[in-house]
Amino acid sequence: MRPILLLQALLALVACANSTPKDPGKGDQGPALAATGAGAQKPISKFTEGKDYLVLDRLRVIDPTGFAQPMEAYSILVPKGWKSVGGITWNVGSGCMAGSVRNRVTVTSPDGGYALEIYPLQEWDWWDDRMMLQSQIQQAQNPVYRRCPIAQPMDAGQFLQGPLAQEMGAQVVSVEPNAELTSALQQQAQAANQQFRQAGVNLESRPSAAMANLRYPDGSAGVALCSVAMQVAWMPNFMNGGQSASYTCQATQKVALRCPAGKEGEARKLLSVVMSSFRINPQYQQGVQQMMNNVAAVEQHETAKRAAIQRDAANYSADLQQRTWEGGQESRDRIAEQWGQTLRGVESWRDATGGSVELSAGYNEAWSRPDGSYILSNDPLFDPSVVLQENWKKLEKGK
After folding, report:
1. How many independent structural domains does the chain possess?
2. Phi, psi angle pair for 356, to nearest 5°
3. Range of the domain at 232
């Protein structure tokens, strides 16, 4: 299941230095005219962006080197004016296939008070048979033998408090295992587990998800999200006549939003929009899948057999997890939606075609533009089609 999980990490759910938000608006253009009565015109008040309305741009992430030409990998919604650094890099020759596609991104607000951090996927292995474990540790010392790191299996909550906290450089104040999202992930895993059983393969997927409240050394706060996909494989133990297990874990979602202390509520709302707005390019997904298949084809025979099992599971899961591209006019990916609902900071809006999107809660008016940008406002007099003289369509608040 590694290839599709690599793409889930690109969920993590986010942005690259080669992509900066496109400016959907022309800024504050001063007083505009509104039609009233029998064609009469009167000036409407001057509106200030960020005060009277909020613009959400679709930040597009481009993979500049992974294929014959640059390709858009995915996109998310971020507030207008936020800047991104980092992005997608490739390292196909790494010892661990999970490190072949590395997604590390920082998206920062203009004043530096908020910073969205996307961390790359991590994979590690473990064996509960001591002899097998020692053998694998010894093989890992040989530079010719390439493999993923060896560490004890962890669920999402344990990973948040340990490796991810160190990577973020933050103190985990509290951890909340998320039953709702874990349940959604488990429903998808059940289909793969059923396929394993039908094929006679002793393999089981055990996903988990959690979120945490953070404190940084400079006194700022934040919230973090994490999901871990664990695969357990059983094999005969000829020493005791029973079975032993091997574990392959992948931290597929590693996302944090840093904020000023006391602004954690706003951070949760914003992070909910980011996570629920994730859109992956199906063509990019297919390209990465093919690349992984090609890499697996040249591995040693025993490794290739294991990769084939995971590849089949990934291909099956891909059918279940196909996500809407951009417009949101088809069924939304349930996992992205569940992240937003977990944070409880979003509301659903619909356009005239029936498409839906989840945007920050607390606004009475919303508009969309064909390029995937959105405007939110609580001012009943504000209409971006009039004020900005652009093609904005009003949305209706969903149930």
Report:
1. 1
2. -130, 155
3. 2-24+48-341
